[in-house]
Design brief:
Blueprint: E1 7-9, E2 17-19, E3 25-27, E4 36-39, H1 50-55, E5 59-63, H2 74-79, E6 85-87, E7 108-110, E8 131-133, E9 154-156, E10 177-179, E11 200-202, E12 223-225, E13 246-248, E14 269-271, E15 278-279, H3 286-289, E16 295-297, E17 302-303, E18 318-320, E19 354-356, E20 377-379, E21 395-397
Parallel strand pairs: 4-5, 5-6, 6-7, 7-8, 8-9, 9-10, 10-11, 11-12, 12-13, 13-14, 14-16, 15-17, 16-18, 18-19, 19-20, 20-21
Antiparallel strand pairs: 1-4, 2-3
Amino acid sequence: MDELCLTKMQHLHPPCAKADCDGDVMMSEHCSLQEHVVDVSSQNLDSVPHTIFNVADKVTELDMAYNNLESIPEPLCGSLVNVTKLSVAGNELTEMPCAISFLSQLVCLNVSSNKLASLPSSIVSLSKLHIFDFSSNEITMLPAEFGRLTALEKVVGYENRLDHLPDTFGLLRQLSTLELNENCLTCLPPNFGFLSSLRILNLSSNKLSSLPESFSNLKSVEVMDLTDNLLEVLPSRFKSCRLLRQLFLAKNRLHVLPDWFCDMSELEDLILNDNQLVESPFPENLGDVCVKLKNFEIAGNYIRRLPESLGRLSHLQRIHIGSVIDELERKDFQNGNWIWKLPSNFGSMIALRHANLNENQICDLPSDFGSLIQLEWLDLGALCFCSTYIFNVVYVIYDAAV
């Protein structure tokens, strides 16, 4: 075996731990173990090296990611009394040991990309845990007392099989990032809105048909992704509306939009593609309030009219009001919107670079359309023009024969 450096020392002299040809760690007599970071990641290990046991009580960070480990020995957990960061991502683990609770100093735990179907209930004893990543496993539920992990700031659990969250989840008052996309969630706990520090929320690709009443009380959310769920309505109130920077709601069943859509002053991205929005769902002052908007996508709905104020979005770079399906697939049916007229000041959106207007009922373009000097990509496919236009753009799609 080639000589492998298993340990990196912080605030010390040259590395003091190396593996010999038998995989044992040789410790230098001059080595201090105050800051002991052990890295045995990507070494094709089937078991934990014996030498890690020898220094376990001195280890502060242990990285055993991307090996072939099928288990973590219980005695090892009992010895890692000073470890603050542990990664066993990308192994073959089918369960975590109950003795994980002995890692009382643990701040960051990464068990992603394994074969875990559950988590031990003892994990809730990790009172100092700030970051927990259990993504890309097969976990169907979290421990009932998960809310005892009150120091948690970031939870990453996408690509699992969770169908609900424990009732204690709302106790995680320090939680700022929650990523549970690509699960099987059908509902959220009633106290979900108690997550007062939540800034980034990703619940996309689940099976949520409604949101709890307390959801309105979330007051710190800046990024919210509820794409690809079964939502028909949004809460009538939302305390975070003035903080939202990105709002992703595509692939739901929304018919109408709540009043707080006229109060999103920090919004930069609004994605509502592939819903069931009808007529004129946006507030008339949308363009006067959402002055920072850069990306506006409402493709694949049943919208007939856009607010006139839309033309005052001087920072808008991308607009998509057309079809959400491939050009060849949409030849046989309508899949855009039913918009028949663009705002008269559409050409005032001087930052616009990408405009997808296909699959609508637009018969003419505003007289100031030629003012869009930054426009690089324009799709006019299957529109009913009665006039001819010349555009100074890099790429134009225009199917006048349809």
